[in-house]
Design brief:
Layout: E1 10-13, H1 19-30, E2 34-39, H2 42-52, E3 57-61, H3 67-80, E4 83-88, H4 106-133, E5 137-141, H5 154-173, E6 178-183, H6 190-195, H7 211-220, E7 225-228, H8 229-238
Parallel strand pairs: 1-2, 1-4, 2-3, 4-5, 5-6, 6-7
Helix pairs in contact: 3-4, 4-5, 7-8
């Protein structure tokens, strides 16, 4: 990635106040990046900023489905330095417990697709000029539900399948930008808990344990495609 000698590279991380987004943001800050992080819950974002306490963390509360908010993210990032990375991490699970597709309300499904498909594409479009100039990278966070037909996961899973294919086409159309679909696997997050209401998910790994896989993807910049964290971690262990 091309960076300026005077300023640190800049990353946009959506859904950055908790879970994998927060873990990724903190890891990038530790590496000297400037990070523009967003979240719908302003209070959580403010608390995260207080805890991290880094002058290179820029927080902008809002919803990625909102056009003005996406513009604010890109404007904030490009004003801070060379925008070199976009992590589309913000996701919407849908109703909890998740309904069968035969019972899925159209309004609920539309909300899932707005967050998981249309917003990442729109943010990519808004950030593309800067990412192209800096030969940047886009990481679209996906799920194994995109490739496995789990009963009850039709809304979320089909949206992530769409995001996978969208990522592949964007990669083919924009060879100067590295575009990846990244599957972190199961993690101990609020969203994963919502997918299994009332169940104990303490056996799932913490999001921080997945971050080394993301960093390997960024460091090695392999051919565009879909990558699973467990495969990248295995390569890291053997290296």
């Amino acid at each position: 990635m091309t960076t300026s000698e005077q300023t640190s590279p800049v990353a946009i991380v959506t859904g950055g106040s908790r879970g994998f987004g927060r873990a990724a943001a903190v890891a990038l800050l530790d590496r000297g990046w400037t990070v523009v992080a967003d979240a719908r819950r302003a209070g959580e974002l403010e608390a995260m900023a207080d805890e991290v306490d880094s002058p290179r963390l820029i927080t902008i509360a809002g919803d990625v489905t909102d056009t003005d908010h996406r513009a604010a993210l890109v404007d904030g990032a490009t004003a801070a330095g060379p925008l070199c990375l976009l992590i589309n991490n913000a996701s919407r699970l849908g109703p909890s417990p998740q309904p069968r597709l035969a019972d899925y309300l159209a309004a609920d499904l539309r909300a899932v697709y707005d967050t998981n498909v249309f917003a990442p594409l729109a943010l990519f479009q808004a950030a593309l000029p800067a990412l192209t100039d800096n030969r940047g990278v886009v990481v679209n966070v996906t799920s194994d539900a995109a490739v496995e037909p789990y009963e009850g996961w039709g809304g979320y899973g089909s949206s992530k399948a769409a995001l996978d294919h969208l990522s592949a086409i964007l990669a083919a159309e924009n060879p100067d930008v590295g575009v990846y679909a990244f599957d972190p696997g199961d993690m101990r997050t609020e969203m994963h808990q919502s997918a299994f209401p009332g169940e104990d998910i303490s056996d799932r790994p913490e999001p921080e344990s997945v971050v080394p896989a993301l960093l390997r993807l960024l460091d090695t910049r392999p051919a565009p495609g879909r990558y699973r964290a467990q495969d990248l971690l295995a390569i890291e262990a053997d290296a």
